[in-house]
């Protein structure tokens, strides 16, 4: 349970006017106001097999030297690399 304490006389007056105009209880009016002000975080759950994609791997596994190559060794600036990945992924 949460208790709301209102020190603002104008806000209290507006809530009381809403209570009198609608005939609802103060608690119900406050709950409705808070529900409208704080929407729930609902988002669709996507199927990764339908919406995912593989990042293009620039390494060729048929080459002998690729076994000793570190992944992402071609990246010199991680911030730029990630920024470019984000930009291109949103353009799909």
- Count of DSSP-assigned helices: 4
Q: What does the largest sheet look like?
A: none
Low-confidence stretches: none
Mean pLDDT figure: 82
**Structural class from helices and strands?**
mainly alpha
Radius of gyration: 28 Å
Key traits:
mainly alpha; 4 helices; elongated
Explained architecture:
The chain is mainly α and 92 residues long. The chain has a domain at 52-90. 47% of the residues lie in helices and 0% in strands. It contains four helices and no strands.
Q: Which helices and strands occur, and which strands form pairs?
A:
Layout (H helix, E strand, L loop, with lengths): L8 H14 L3 H12 L10 H4 L26 H13 L2
Summarize the structure in short.
By secondary structure, the chain is an all-alpha fold. It has helices spanning 9-22, 26-37, 48-51, 78-90. The protein has a domain at 52-90.
